[in-house]
Amino acid sequence: MDNVRLLDAIGAKIAERPLDAGAYEDFYHICLDMVEDEHDISVCRGKWLAGTLADAVPRALRAGQIPSRLVEVHRKALKLCAVDDFDSYLQFVEWARDPEKRFYAPRRPIMHDMVVRSMQGLADGELDLLTVSLPPGTGKSTLGIFFLSWMMGRNPDAPNLASAHADMLTRSFYDGVMQIIRDPEYLWGEVFPGLIVATTNAKEETVDLGKPHRFSSLTCRAINASLTGATRCEGILYCDDLCSGIEEAMSRERLDKLWMTYTNDLKSRKKLGAKELHIATRWSVYDVIGRLEKQYGGSDRARFIAVPATNDDGESNFNYAYGVGFDRAYFEDMRSNLDSASYDALFMQRPIEREGVLYPQDELRRYFELPPGEPDAIIAICDTKDRGKDYGFLPVGYVWGNDYYIDDCVCDNGQPGAVEARFVDILLKHRVQSARFESNAAGGKIAEKIQLAVKERGGAAHITTRHTTENKETKIIVNSQWVKEHCLFRAEGTFKPSDDYGRMMRMLTTYTMTGKNPHDDVPDGMAMFAQYAQSFTAGNPVILRRPF
Hints:
Layout: H1 3-16, H2 21-34, H3 39-62, H4 68-81, H5 86-93, H6 104-123, E1 129-133, H7 140-154, E2 160-163, H8 167-182, H9 188-191, E3 197-201, E4 206-209, E5 218-220, E6 236-240, H10 246-249, H11 252-266, E7 275-279, H12 288-296, E8 302-306, H13 328-337, H14 340-348, E9 365-367, E10 377-382, E11 392-400, E12 403-412, H15 416-429, E13 434-438, H16 443-456, E14 462-466, H17 472-486, E15 487-490, H18 500-509, H19 521-535
Parallel strand pairs: 1-7, 1-8, 2-5, 2-6, 6-7, 9-15, 10-13, 12-15, 13-14
Antiparallel strand pairs: 3-4, 4-5, 10-11, 11-12
Helix pairs in contact: 1-2, 2-3, 2-4, 3-4, 4-5, 5-6, 7-8, 15-16, 17-19
């Protein structure tokens, strides 16, 4: 029986008896025997073994067993794969550390799929360029330092270059890599046995592995420091926060200079086959990542990761285990203490300006309170929701003359039934008199259902439907000026960024005519609102006295 069939047979036995330590040990030893002749299969099966054991160990503890043999096989399986697999390396290199000190373990459930897989793609040659933008304190720079230490061990003769806007940062890269390589708390030496630190220079921030090189295994240098003759880059060009902050980001001249410096002093050091990893806050569409995305955004050899602090419902995307992450309350507090431009860039990965934004914040009309007295009318439109990630959107407008006060809304991508119930509630709450629903595949039936529910509960809203035939993007653009001139939105501070109104404003003010938009439901809905509002005045007959 060949090795693969034997592994399949043992794997089936493990599935039947998941706490059989002997089966795991047999599986591991076969993988170990395959390392030389069937390396890729050995690593692939070793990763499966490590993942299965990660579930088996706590299962054994719950069953009252002492899982020492399972733990040892888990350690060996991770070590087997650590040179080739970044995820395995991250787990194994911290194996000897106290659990409460480990960096990767509590962050792995989130960071593995979010970032680590893409870093693996960079190392495997599937990608040439990777950029990562995450909120402060989420571990992106530390992950980058681990990545450097791994890439250096894999190929110590290939020079790597790490840069940032200040020497204080590049020194942290140097110190971080040296700690992983030399500190016995880390098992770097077991991953790369026999690989010594040949030379180091703390002043120049250089490290040589294996032997001295003309161009060091790692050179750390601030972007404004001289690199002439100092190094070249054959492995990884690692750039972490090249832009110093919002002051630099606000100056187009300084950003142009930064781009030129990056191109001349960093990118020009790359040799054929070298890869780039950029980690940075998305300050501006004209920062280095913004320009790289514009240049390479359509390439399958480049990947641009930008994950905001919170999802569309305001929940934290970085609520790591063991209390090392950030919850919803933390990000809400940060939002309340920072100006919107800084918060959006630092935490939401939204540049301080967006190229081609259709509804800039400063072009929208705002109000704190509705005018006194009764409005001329209360109207609404509804962009209905089908299953999927699209949002159901229903804004309510109070009409005084030619002004439309958008006082409330439903902006929800929950289950369709729950969203439809909210549509009924908001129509009743505001005593909406007239509403138009989009009539698409499901919109007409939803309109009938909601009209019936409103009447049953004593509401007076008259609901009509309209089938949209225009191109969505064209409709959004041509109606935007009317929305800016006639619609008033609640002022900042009168709603929570995480509620429906906050979601509506965020989706409206981040919609761009250039680039990708994750959601266009709100700008599309406001275009529908503009068309509906104008339908009340367009083409109304005027009665005149006959002149004869």
